[in-house]
């Protein structure tokens, strides 16, 4: 190789060396894309005990996470981590997860197929449907489908409620109404406060019936 090639090679080498710290900083300060297999492995540990191996919890007071939106799952994990949402179980668990852990777990659950819900009180479905689709103008309760969609699928930060455990849904409505769950959209607190106990139970049963 002739001497005339050295200047160009030296320039390339210096450029690579000078660029390396910036590349390393960028990689260290950000998460990679979601790793579904890794998310499954992480979720299969402590998460599965409450939420099931595929996110379809069989315990009615623990929510189903299968098919839930990534944006919503990440938001809730961060809310637990920042003590915006209280739980003796979830707060320490969320605090132990890295940003990459959260991303991988959220994407794993989002890709799972949600199991159908169980309706315990079918006699309440008619009232529940009315509240969900029409609200209650007398009490100033807006319809639920405005945020969660007519089929309960939700989108982005608005969670999927279709097929969710009615016991969990009712408990969360009661937590909103009592102020125990105060961080989040104001509309949820308003809705929960204005629903009658019968309406709250009925709409929970109706959401469970959606697919």
How would you characterize this protein structure?
The chain is an all-alpha fold and 211 residues long. It has two domains: 36-110, Cytochrome c-like domain (Cytochrome Bc1 Complex, Chain D, domain 2), CATH 1.10.760.10; 122-209, Orthogonal Bundle (Cytochrome Bc1 Complex, Chain D, domain 2). The chain is 56% helix and 0% strand. It contains ten helices and no strands. The chain has helices at residues 6-28, 36-51, 70-81, 90-95, 99-110, 125-134, 145-148, 166-178, 186-194, 197-209. The protein is globular and about 50 Å long. The N and C termini lie far apart (70 Å). Mean pLDDT is 88; it is low at 1-29.
Question: What is the H level of CATH, i.e. the homologous superfamily of the largest domain?
Answer: Cytochrome c-like domain
What is the number of domains?
2
Structural class by SSE content: mainly alpha
Strand percentage lies at under 5%
By CATH reckoning, the class of the largest domain would read Mainly Alpha
Q: Examine the secondary-structure arrangement and name the CATH architecture of the largest domain.
A: Orthogonal Bundle
User: Which runs of at least 5 residues are low in confidence (pLDDT < 50)?
Assistant: 1-29
Cα Rg: 23 Å
Q: Roughly how many Å apart are the termini?
A: 70 Å
Q: Please give the number of β-strands.
A: 0
Q: What would the average pLDDT be, to the nearest integer?
A: 88
Roughly how much helix do the residues carry, as a percent range? 55-70%
Main β-sheet: number of strands, strand sense, barrel status? Answer: none
Order of helices and strands: HHHHHHHHHH
Shape annotation: globular
| Count, helices | 10
What is the CATH topology of the largest domain?
A: Cytochrome Bc1 Complex, Chain D, domain 2
């Amino acid at each position: 190789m002739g001497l005339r090639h050295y200047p160009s090679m030296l320039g390339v080498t210096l450029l690579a060396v000078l660029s390396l710290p910036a590349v390393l900083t960028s990689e260290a300060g950000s998460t990679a894309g979601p790793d579904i297999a890794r998310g499954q492995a992480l979720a299969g540990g402590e998460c599965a005990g409450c939420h099931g191996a595929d996110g379809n919890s069989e315990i009615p007071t623990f929510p189903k996470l299968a098919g839930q939106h990534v944006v919503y799952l990440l938001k809730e994990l961060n809310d637990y981590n920042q003590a915006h949402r209280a739980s003796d179980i979830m707060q320490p668990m969320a605090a132990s997860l890295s940003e990459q852990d959260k991303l991988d777990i959220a994407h794993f659950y989002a890709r799972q197929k949600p199991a159908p819900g169980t309706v315990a009180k079918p006699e309440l479905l008619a009232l529940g449907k009315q509240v969900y689709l029409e609200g209650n103008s007398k009490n100033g309760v807006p319809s639920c489908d405005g945020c969660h969609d007519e089929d309960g699928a939700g989108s982005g930060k608005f969670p999927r409620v279709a097929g969710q455990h009615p016991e969990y849904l009712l408990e969360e409505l009661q937590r909103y109404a009592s102020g125990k769950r105060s961080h989040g959209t104001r509309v949820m607190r308003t809705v929960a406060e204005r629903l009658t106990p019968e309406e709250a139970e009925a709409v929970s049963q109706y959401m469970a019936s959606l697919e």
